[in-house]
Amino acid sequence: MSATLLFSLVIAYFLVLLAVAWVTSRNSNNDSFFIGNRNSNWMLVAFGMIGTSLSGVTFVSVPGTVGGSGFAYMQVVIGYFIGYFIVAFILLPLYYRLHLTSIYHYLEQRFGIVAYKTGALFFIISRTLGATARLYLVINVLQLFILDNLHVPFWVTTFVILLMILLYTFEGGVKTIVFTDTLQTTFMLLGLVVCIVYITRSLGFSFGETMSALNAKGYTRIFNPDVNSGGFWLKQILGGAFITVGMTGLDQEMMQKNISVKNLGDSQKNMVSFSIVLVLVNFLFLLLGGLLYLFAESKQIGIKGDDLFPTVALSYLPPVISFVFIIGLISALFPSADGALTALTSSFCIDLLGLKKRDDLDEKGKTKTRRSVHLTFTVVFFLCVMIFKWIDNKSIIDIILKIAGYTYGPLLGLFAFGIFSKRPVKQGYAVLIVCLAAPVICYILSDNAARWFNGFQIGIELLILNALITIAGLWMISKKSELG
User: Fold this and answer.
1) Is 462 a domain residue?
2) What pLDDT does 37 receive?
3) Contacts of 359 (CB under 8 A, 6+ apart)
């Protein structure tokens, strides 16, 4: 399939999204943008969140990891599954009881204005870096396999894609995203299943024969028993659980969709059903990865990692499968970027600018401010993607997990200390200092762990360590509650 035809299909796909956005954003207001008027259907939210959680990183990077570590990523997925239940039955009841629009308002009620602003700031930094890292990975694939052939510069590709996302999120926000994410998740899963079925048939395998072939190659191994390794099974499961708590339960983007659901019960149904489906979908991505390596070996393709899936799909499979791959890839791209852009706009407007409490602005003035912030974050996204292109690091999934460890750790520490302790903290900038110090201490420990602790490596559990250091710091600046 020619690059021109593939690019035309991408444009057609975007026009469909724009049509959905036009229909869903009619009669929208700021509440529609921020929380979907608290009228979202829980089943649509649950299904759409699959696309948001997986993103282009899962679509491209997770299959590529099978060649080096087999199905070890399932250790993290088991942790994710545990973490979603923590979010559903500890955090969601808190958010609904307090009727929050921004989840970071809890920190203001518990610790004061500085903690509130600090929590929002850490979210903004983390989500900006994480979302643009994911965005870069997918744009780079489109660039290498389609747009380079059309002599389109990388910066133009990035600009056009971000303009697309800006256009269909500009008015409707969460109200629109609930529907577009559902559409995009459908196409992403369709792309995954079609590729699995086609490659399995081209290899002449049944499901049982596929698993036997993968097992013979050592690809189906899951649990890593090496305690010193960063991939040790207990580290991965615990790390996965707390990454879910941090990157979902304490993330305005993910919770913005959940608290847009009518009531707590439906929101919990959303989270539980979503967690079950996500385990299955991640297994399918790993199965696809194993199939890709078997296919590459049969065709003597010497490519591994993030480049394997795009190379096989676009260079060795029939044109119709190439088309399905591209649609699946961009369907994985948009949900992670559009939700992040909307959530960052919401958090900046509500948490840092205090837009909902501003009496000096009428609804029209607030809308103008919100649009300006939305546009500004689009520019920030563009600049960050260009920086990732300049760095040109292939291990994007590792970068994202490290960013999460350093930036969501203080958030996890703040919420955990607030929920499980009644101790008040000192007012002023003490909380900010603790939250800035914790990642620095973590970096020093992580950089020197192997030398200081007899070869022990800090892996995905970095987030837990960061949170514990934050909790220790908060304890030091707190005092015993007068209530007990």
Assistant:
1) no
2) 46
3) none
Domain housing 188: 3-397
Structure tokens at 201: 């048939």
Q: What is the DSSP letter of 428?
A: S
- The answer to whether 199 and 291 have CB atoms below 8 angstroms apart is yes
Q: What is the Cα–Cα distance from 411 to 428, expressed in whole angstroms?
A: 18
- For 424, phi then psi, to 5°, come to -80, 150
Q: Does a structural domain hold residue 236?
A: yes
Q: Please tell me the distance from the alpha carbon of residue 211 to that of residue 214, in angstroms, as a whole number.
A: 5
Q: Are 411 and 119 in contact (CB under 8 A)?
A: yes
User: How confident is residue 242, by pLDDT bands cut at 50, 70 and 90?
Assistant: confident
Specify the number of domains making up the chain: 1
Residue 99 lies in a domain: yes
Position 484 confidence tier, pLDDT thresholds 50, 70, 90: very low
- Biggest CA-to-CA distance, the chain: 71
What residue has token string 């979302």? 131
38: left (phi over 0), alpha (psi -120 to 50) or beta: left
User: Looking at the predicted structure, is the pLDDT value of residue 141 above 60?
Assistant: yes
User: How many alpha carbons lie under 13 Å from residue 290 in its C-beta half-sphere?
Assistant: 28
Dig out the tokens for 236 from the structure. 């991965």
Q: What is the CATH number of the domain that holds 382?
A: 1.20.1730.10
- pLDDT tens digits along 361-373: 777 887 788 888 8
How large is the average pLDDT for residues 234-253? 85
Q: Which of 27, 36, 30 is nearest to 367 (CA)?
A: 30
The separation between the first and the last C-alpha atoms of the chain, rounded to the nearest angstrom, is 69
**Spatial CA neighbour of 404 closest among 216, 245, 189, 297:** 245
Residue 341 has pLDDT above 70, yes or no: yes
DSSP character string of 277-300 = HHHHHHHHHHHHHHHHHHHHHHTT
Phi/psi region, residue 360 (left: phi>0; alpha: psi -120 to 50; beta: rest), is alpha
> Is residue 393's pLDDT more than 60?
no
Cβ neighbourhood burial of 339 (10 Å; 0-12, 13-18, 19+): buried
Compute the distance between CA of residue 106 and CA of residue 114 in angstroms, rounded to an integer: 12
- E strands in 277-410: none
161, part of any domain: yes
List pLDDT tens digits, range 13-49: 778 777 777 776 665 555 545 544 455 566 666 666 6
Nearest-5° Cα angle at 279, 262 to 302: 135
